[in-house]
Design a protein that fits this description.
By secondary structure, the protein is an alpha/beta fold. Helix content is 29%, strand content 21%. It has a single domain (3-187), classed as 2-Layer Sandwich (Beta Polymerase, domain 2), CATH 3.30.460.
Amino acid sequence: MTTDEKVDTVRAGVLDALSSELTLVGSHLALGDDLWIRVDRAAWVATLTHLRDKHGCRWFDFLSVIDWLPSPFGRSMDSEVDTVVHGKDSKEPDAMATGVAGGDTRFQVFTRVYNVTQHWGVTIKTDLPDDDLSLATLIPVFPGANWHEREAMEMFGVDFVGHPNPRKLYLPGGFEGFPLRKDFPLLARMVKPWPGIVDVEQMPGETDEGDGDAAAEGGDAG
């Protein structure tokens, strides 16, 4: 049995155990890749405590927020790499969709912890109601969540209840709004087109007809 197969066996066993030990709202096991679970926000702290104490997940990796709302600005703020190269040229907003393990609301908080002895990790997600973007802090369980929660508060407007020091990290004190929400207008992109294909500069020696090597070879041949 390969190392990946052993880890997959462990992941499958962990998912089976968590399904019986906790009340999961959703889950996803990708063999050879990773494991995700989704829990109710009331079980957020208890789930992380359980993973730490029962399943040896003592390494806190990160915490962040996902805003699943399609941009109300359509593709007008996308770079030309998205609109031209990847063919995403529609100006109509996409329908809202969520990722693995599902989701029922616009905002989800997600975090990842790791078992360093058995070499597997799990991403835990929870939905936040649109009218109550609050969640209990993880600092009593994982003190390393401090900075991550402060960033999520500042950039997405999520209130981590019980956080001992919810000071801003990046923005000035009087700043209004939450820059990483999908409906936050990026005025710089409205004033000036987002850098894209048209802004790519030629490398020294390149010409419109071909690259520098081809031009050099043509010159030598002449």
